[in-house]
Every structure is written in structure tokens, then in C-alpha cells.
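Morning F.,

Quick status update on the modeling queue. The single chain you submitted on Monday has been processed. Sequence for confirmation:
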Amino acid sequence: MAEQGVRWGILATGGIAAAFAADLVDLPDAEITAVASRSPESARAFAERFGIERAYGDWESLARDEDVDVVYVATPHAAHRAAAGLCLRAGRNVLCEKAFTVNSREAEELVALAKEHDRFLMEAMWTYCNPLVRRLTALVADGAIGQVRTVQADFGLEGPFPPAHRLRDPVLGGGALLDLGVYPVAFAHLLLGEPDGMSARAVLSEEGVDLQTGALLSWESGALAMVHCSIVGGTGNGASITGSQGRIDIPDGFFHPERFVLHRDGRDPQEFAMDPADGPRNTLRHEAREVMRALRAGEKESPLVPLTGTLAVMRTLDTLREQIGVRYPGEA
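C-alpha cells below.
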């Protein structure tokens, strides 16, 4: 690995790849060495936009580039297994976008590949790396609201999205659950762990993907989580955690919060706000910093986004999809 910095490769050139590249450019210890796309024209245009030296018109060349320390996989999630697997087998470390894969079987295959080739692997769950979310989880762990009783979280986009859009394309793993629902599900997991039971209902599109899904998750402790996602209605995207001794409200954008409010019986509400030095709120720099910290420390996974947690979220998503009747091409 480079001693003076971490050399990144970016696989895919869509909107999230551009956002990540823009944040990497602002990190003094990060260097974008190469970008790859199945379209040479897209790769060259992306490279010119961000001042990247190498532009590859295929994924294999990036995976084989020994001047790349870690690859950020930014394809639609239906291609994550193939793209991340290619990079791991070639000896690259990998940060892979969420949903990590389309199902837990593929996720387990990637984790096994990372262990086989002794490479670092992490899901790009930026929420878990967010400093304000980390403060919130520390408060909950310290008993600020007592025992967690309920979690409510919601993520919806107004749309409408045409049938040809990736969010409605079964081949690309479309639907609200994997693209948006992964956030409220992962948020509930962050606070309560893997649920012991769940029940879901959904409205499906003509293509067979979910337009909106609501689910009730339950734990043996008696805790419940109500989660919802939609690609047909813009929701408040807020979250609330109720405990035996108080409540925490995130008024909007719970997955990248600007503030949250702690309510405790007999006390005035206490607001916690994002440190301006950590902003803007939609930055991806925190997950990039965590990857670079872990690589320098010789770690093979991040304690903030552990692979056991990623696999647990994928198992939950599998069960919810089975209950609502969404199956993707190639699944048994």
C-alpha cells in the first residue's frame, strides 16, 4: 500500500460514484488513481472531470491495477457480486455500495472471497460512519433513554419513476426495499441487532418490484421497529427511537442527520447538531476516512460497519422480499 496516502480506484461512473469522487478530492490523504466503466467514453469523461490519470473501459483492468489500494464499487447493486468479487480475487481491497448485494447468498460469497484472499471488505453504509449517528448510538448505549422499546424509520422518494428506470428494473435489483429500505432496516439493526421476527406488506409494480413496502420487525426483548420505504411518495425521511425513559427524534434525513433531539422525562429537550467541520450533511468523506484508517491499521473489516452486521441486514432483506413476493432474475 502507498505510504503517503491511499490510492483509490472507482468502478462505475454514475451519480454516487461522482459524489464519492468529489469528496475524495477534498481529502488530502486520498488519491484517485483510476476509474473504470464498461463504456470507455464514460470512463474517460469521468477521469477528465476529476483529474484521474487512468481510465479503463473494462472492470478487469482496474481490478488488476496494482497501483490501486482499494476499489469503490458504485454499480447498481445487481452487479455488486460480480464487480466486488472480481476485485477481491485480483487482490484489491473493496468498499462496496449498498445494498451490499441482491441477497444474502451473494453477500456471503463476497465475505468468503475477502477472507480467502485476505483483503479488506466493507459495505458503504455511510450512516454508520456519520459522527452524529455515532453520537446518537453512544447515547442509546449509555442508557440515555433507557431500554429501547420502538424504532420508527422511513425513507421515500416522490417519483414517479418510469418503468425503464433502474429503480423499477428487476434485472438491476429494482424496487424500494433494496435501494431505500436498506436504510431504515440497517438503522433498526444498528440499535437493536438482527430481529427475531418480521412481517411485511408491499405494493408491487407491473414489473414485479416493490413500489412501497412497510414492515414490522420484532425482538425477543419486546422491542419493535416500524420501517417503511417508497418510490411513489416523498416522505419525511425521519426516525424516532423510544425508550423506557425517553425518546430521540431525528426530524429529517435520519441516514445523514443534521440534528437530533433528546427528550427525557422531567427535563427540557436537548438538541444535538452536526459539527460544521463534519459537514456538509451529505458528505461521504466519513466512510472514506474509515476505510483509510482501517487499511493503515491492517484491519480486514471496519468495526463501524462489521461484515456480520452487513450479512444480518441482507438476511432481513431476504425475508422481507420473500414475504412481499419480489424475486429477481437468476434467483432460485
